[in-house]
């Protein structure tokens, strides 16, 4: 549900070649489909990326592109993380209306000016879009109120949002307290401590989704890369801007499952559901279950979640040599 790139390519490269590289690279991680995730850049860059996703997504030969996840630019500049805050803007339907059919998820800061009307409009007119709180400075009350408008998910819980404090529980507390609000989390032991991975699983259960938030260095060697026009250094499994700010991840999807099994009380079936059944249900698609009428997307792996084979629509797309 949340990935910017892999194999040296990024969604914001806005080319078919980039999407094809990401699509084919992800097969080795056991990914059969994904949301191509954009980020906070210039309106022109976002428009180019959205247009490319809409025009090219059906032609990739690896993991299928289900649509777009906009991680910005409708965020709070004070919680920009590794995104360039000079391009943060107020919620603006015009930026996305030409591509609305392919937009499946939007990360938004509900406390910013214009967010309430924007969220309510999308929830009423485009209910297929998952509206997710993230890169936000909302407090507990603001977060709870946004859930009544139509926000029903949280992006990379704990990261780029108000902290979970005993006197002001913030976004995390609101998510924990609201049964029908789901969340996703980056289980790489860099973005989130094992204790909080375990706590989140205990509280959210069937509302917890695992993501990678991987950038172009995914499945690549350590070194220097870029994310949204900013230099990123990848070293020892950690991707950071030059000032030390975390800049996405290099986590692989199958590694996230292994981490959750090792550090939490999650069962193998629960871990698998968190990357198959639960996100598929969130997006309203016929995937994630071995059942008649559903897409024949199947991943075969060993006891350590090392991928043996990735099958998409009944066709073997990857086989470990």
Structural class, by secondary structure, is alpha/beta
Number of helices: 10
Radius of gyration: 18 Å
- And the CATH topology? TIM Barrel
- What is the domain total for the residues? 1
Average pLDDT works out at: 96
Helix content: 25-40%
Distance between the termini: 28 Å
Name of the CATH architecture:
Alpha-Beta Barrel
Can you count the beta strands?
A: 15
Strand content: 15-25%
List the helices and strands and how they pair.
Blueprint: E1 5-6, E2 9-10, H1 16-25, E3 33-39, H2 43-56, E4 64-71, H3 93-96, E5 103-108, H4 115-125, E6 130-133, H5 140-149, E7 153-154, H6 170-177, E8 182-186, H7 194-204, E9 208-211, E10 223-227, E11 230-235, E12 238-241, H8 253-263, H9 268-273, H10 277-283, E13 298-301, E14 307-312, E15 315-319
Parallel strand pairs: 3-4, 4-5, 5-6, 6-7, 7-8, 8-9
Antiparallel strand pairs: 1-2, 10-11, 11-12, 13-14, 14-15
Helix pairs in contact: 5-6
Task: Describe the model.
There is one protein chain. By secondary structure, this protein is α/β, with parallel strands linked by helices. It has one domain (about 5-220, about 245-320): Metal-dependent hydrolases (TIM Barrel). Helix content is about 30%, strand content about 20%. The strands form four sheets. Strands 3-4-5-6-7-8-9 form a seven-stranded parallel sheet, sandwiched between helices. Strand 10 (about 225) and strand 11 (about 230-235) form a beta hairpin. Helix 5 (about 140-150) packs across helix 6. It is globular. The chain starts with a strand and ends with a strand. The model has no long low-confidence stretch (mean pLDDT about 95).
């Amino acid at each position: 549900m949340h990935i910017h790139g892999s194999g040296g390519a990024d969604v914001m490269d806005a080319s078919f070649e980039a999407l094809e590289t990401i699509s084919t690279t992800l097969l080795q991680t056991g990914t059969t489909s994904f949301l191509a995730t954009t980020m906070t850049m210039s309106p022109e860059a976002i428009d180019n990326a959205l247009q490319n996703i809409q025009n090219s997504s059906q032609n990739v030969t690896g993991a299928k592109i289900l649509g777009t996840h906009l991680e910005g630019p409708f965020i709070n500049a004070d919680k920009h993380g590794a995104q360039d805050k000079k391009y943060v803007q107020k919620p603006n339907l015009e930026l996305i209306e030409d591509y609305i059919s392919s937009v499946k998820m939007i990360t938004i800061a509900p406390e910013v000016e214009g967010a309430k009307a924007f969220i309510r409009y999308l929830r009423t007119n485009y209910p297929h879009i998952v509206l997710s709180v993230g890169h936000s400075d909302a407090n507990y009350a603001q977060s709870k109120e946004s859930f009544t408008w139509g926000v029903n998910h949280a992006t990379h819980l704990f990261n780029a949002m108000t902290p979970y404090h005993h006197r002001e529980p913030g976004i995390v507390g609101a998510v924990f307290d609201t049964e029908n609000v789901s969340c996703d989390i980056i289980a790489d032991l860099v973005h989130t401590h094992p204790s909080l991975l375990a706590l989140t699983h205990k509280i959210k259960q069937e509302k917890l989704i695992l993501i990678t938030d991987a950038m172009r260095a995914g499945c690549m060697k350590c070194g220097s890369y870029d994310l949204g026009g900013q230099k990123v250094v990848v070293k020892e499994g950690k991707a950071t801007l030059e000032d030390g700010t975390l800049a996405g991840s290099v986590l692989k999807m199958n590694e996230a499952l292994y981490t959750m099994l090792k550090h939490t009380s999650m069962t193998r079936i629960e871990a698998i559901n968190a990357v198959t059944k639960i996100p598929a249900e969130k997006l309203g698609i016929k995937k994630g279950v071995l059942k008649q009428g559903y897409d024949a997307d199947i991943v075969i792996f060993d006891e350590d979640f090392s991928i043996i084979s990735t099958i998409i629509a009944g066709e073997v797309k990857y086989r470990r040599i």
